[in-house]
Design brief:
The chain has about 130 residues and is mostly beta strands. It has no helices and 11 strands.
Length: about 130
C-alpha cells in the first residue's frame, strides 16, 4: 500500500510559478513510476506529467510542455511538479499518482496508475 500526500497548491496570478510536492509513504517509492494529473470542474481527469523510477524518462502533456517540469528525490520519497508561466487554464485540482511498476505506461491515462493522493487545489487568476 502506498499513501500519497500532495502539497504546494494555492492561488497565484497568471505568469507566476508554483512547485507541488508529493510525499509517499513506504519503502517502495524508488521502484515506482510517478505521475501528476489534474481535474478542472466539469472536466475529466487529465494527464499532466510522469517520471520513471529513476528519473531517466519523463513525459508531459502538450499543454504544459516547456512550462512544467517533473522531478523526484528517491531518498526523500518525494516527487515534484514545478509549474512556471502559469495560465488561468491550469486551474484545477492536481493529483499525484503512483504506478505499481517502475516504467512509464504507453498511454498516460488514470487507469495506469494504482495509487492516488487527495489532491491539491491550484487557482490561477488572470
Amino acid at each position: 500500500q502506498v499513501q500519497l500526500v500532495e502539497s504546494g497548491g494555492g492561488l497565484v496570478q497568471a505568469g507566476d510559478s508554483l512547485r507541488l510536492s508529493c510525499a509517499a509513504s513506504g519503502r517502495t517509492f524508488g521502484s515506482r513510476a510517478m505521475g501528476w494529473f489534474r481535474q478542472a470542474p466539469g472536466k475529466e481527469r487529465e494527464f499532466v506529467a510522469a517520471i520513471s523510477w529513476d528519473g531517466s524518462r519523463t513525459k508531459f502533456a502538450d499543454s504544459v510542455k516547456g512550462r512544467f517540469t517533473i522531478s523526484r528525490d528517491n531518498a526523500k520519497n518525494t516527487v515534484y511538479l514545478q509549474m512556471n508561466s502559469l495560465k488561468p487554464e491550469d486551474t484545477a485540482v492536481y493529483y499525484c499518482a503512483a504506478r505499481s511498476v517502475a516504467t512509464l505506461p504507453t498511454i498516460m491515462r488514470p487507469m495506469e496508475f494504482s495509487y492516488w493522493g487527495q489532491g491539491t487545489q491550484v487557482n490561477v487568476s488572470s
